[in-house]
Amino acid sequence: MGQLKNTTKETIAAYAFLAPNLTGFLIFTSIPVLASLGLSFMRWDLLTAPRFVGIDNFIQLFRDPLFWKYCWNTIYLMLAIPFSISGSLILALALNQKIKGVVFFRTIYFLPTICSGVAIFMLWRLVYNPEFGIFNTMIAKFGEIIGVPLKGPFWLSDEKWAKPALIIMGIWQMVGGYNMILYLAALQGVPRHLYEAAEIDGANSWQKFWAVTWPQISPTTFFIATMSIIGGFQAGFDPAYIMTGGGPNGATTTIIYYIYNHAFEWYHMGYAAAISWVLFLIIFLITLAKWKLFSNEVTY
Amino acid sequence: MPASAAPVKTSAMTEKKVSAAPAIKSKNHYDKKPSQWGRKLCIYAFLILGALTMIAPFFWMLTASLKEPGAVFSYQKAWWHDWVPTTFVWQNYTKALEAVPFARFYLNSIFIVVCTTAGQVITSAMAAYAFARLRFAGRDKIFFAYLATMMIPGAVTMIPVFILLSKLGWINTYKAMILPGIFTAYGTFMLRQFFLTLPKDLEDAAMIDGCSYFGIFWRILLPLSKPALATLTIFTFMGSWMNFMWPLIVVNSEEKFPLPVGLAYFQSLYRTDWTLLMAGSVMMILPILIVFIFGQRYFVEGIKLSGIKG
């Protein structure tokens, strides 16, 4: 009797604790997920009644050259990931030596992450200004010095250069941020006796890195890489919106920007939902691959 | 600051000791002072170069924000005019403040961020307590539903939530900016994992003494979970402060804009007025910079904590 009463009491308490979060979760996450799936089989402009169209949205999507172009843009822009991860590791290795001012350097490297957002993108729009931006003035100065008139590209307004410009900015933004701090923590967690053993075997610094450090921090590398790729597929809206408006000629429009355009500029709610589900599918497949790979690839 | 510096130093020192001690026995006889010095010098040079690269654009922004409007940026002048402020046109700042209601944007941002963060931390902690410590019918199923949604991109829910809010007539309200940001599966999951690592003895003892569930949650679990709560607070705070896309979607009148949307609006009005735009950017960055410099220890610890789970 008493036992039963206690369990009931516990259940009531549990649901009381759960209620606020669960209500919000249902309203803003789980029901919308289902609604979004339903929407992806419809045409709806919010003004007229929604119309069921089966898988038409998906068929149209796979025939939509713009969708493929923007997928390619998204993947191209992820070129920033390998560069910034290697940079993070190199910075973390340098900071992990016996040096003074670790906190100072770490703080400065973290500035682009902490200040990220609209202000930084506005700043970089100016940095890439063809006439007086940092890059082109430096290129022109360099030309003066070597006696050859050099002119930098038009960066954000040149279809060829807009993506590289965003990649360079992305590397600058990410290199000293979260990933570097995770690497630094990982490096500090490598057991010292492993280095001792390697030294007794006569390993130099280079060998010690590849034989001890790299395998030891591989779980961190794996974590950072997968998170960056998952993030990369959903990225690109804020900088493109502020700096290029997705242009020139769609050169910097990513998947998420395309979803935004369809949903909130042109009110194609069904089509936008369909794109978002394709995006979800991509991320789901990467997550699956991550789970599969996790046991094989990562050395502990 | 010193507290975060300490572990870094000790581990670096012990590692040095390790690399130095066996060196005498093994063949690294040449690993002596001069080469060590050269190595150190290279590392410092590299780190300083990196720091300059990180800081340069900020410095440039500050210089630009203090220039004469119109007469800006010509590389015919000495090169350092672009880098060192030679003029101090503080009116750029007052002009920017007059051009759009920056103070209003600040207040909006602060209000939204505080409500989102408080709501997120409180409701997540409560739900996490239920998941971690209480037994009830359907617990595992509900928890699985939370987990399953964690990898769903925000873009999927964005569209139905927008439609819902517009049906409710909540477009262009603070509610629309705050509420959807509060209930994330991530916060609940992270805190639940943390609660599970805490020993249960104290709670059992308190239970025997007749403490209520709420008492246990409030007086035992929460005080023990300060690092995890701090981490969640920081991440929610930063995410909410920088959030641009969602407010852009749900808000359309100037007096409701949070800072990022306000700044983008400012840019749309003064597209080529660079001195003003940079003054606006400086004003957006400054507060978060101050928060970060004073609280950076918590940021770093929080990031480490979030990365451990993998």
UniProtKB/TrEMBL annotation, chain A:
Superkingdom of this protein's organism: Bacteria
Gene Ontology, cellular component aspect: plasma membrane
Domain ABC transmembrane type-1: 70-290
Pfam family, one: BPD_transp_1
Record keyword Cell membrane present: yes
Cellular compartment(s): Cell membrane
CDD domains: TM_PBP2
Topology relative to the membrane: Multi-pass membrane protein
Keywords (A to Z) from UniProt: Cell membrane, Membrane, Transmembrane, Transmembrane helix, Transport
Main subcellular localisation: membrane
GO biological process: transmembrane transport
PANTHER family: ABC TRANSPORTER PERMEASE PROTEIN, INNER MEMBRANE ABC TRANSPORTER PERMEASE PROTEIN YCJO
Family: Belongs to the binding-protein-dependent transport system permease family.
The protein, known as: ABC transmembrane type-1 domain-containing protein
